[in-house]
Amino acid sequence: DISKLGERLQKIATFVGDRAHPFWDSTSITASDLQKYRTIIHGDPKQANIFFRETDDSEELEVGLIDFQWSGFG
Q1: Among 8, 15, 54, 70, who pairs with 43 as Cys (CB 3.0-4.6 Å)?
Q2: Are 70 and 43 in contact (CB under 8 A)?
Q3: Distance (Å) of CA 43 to CA 6, 12, 23, 61
Q4: Which tens digit of pLDDT belongs to each residue from 46-74?
């Protein structure tokens, strides 16, 4: 029933969110097993926050990021 979709989604949102997170705790995979895959997420990767510069070897680029206000672990 589509009229109760929002209510049904709210009931399972926390459950699904917990399981979707790569560091959730389960019996088969522990959070410590997944720590090696932890990365930093920039959070605002728009053009104004990314800088490129050609190196002496013109086939490579150096990349710089600024504005880590919305960064976090992922």
Answers
A1: 70
A2: yes
A3: 27, 26, 19, 22
A4: 999 999 988 887 788 899 989 888 887 77
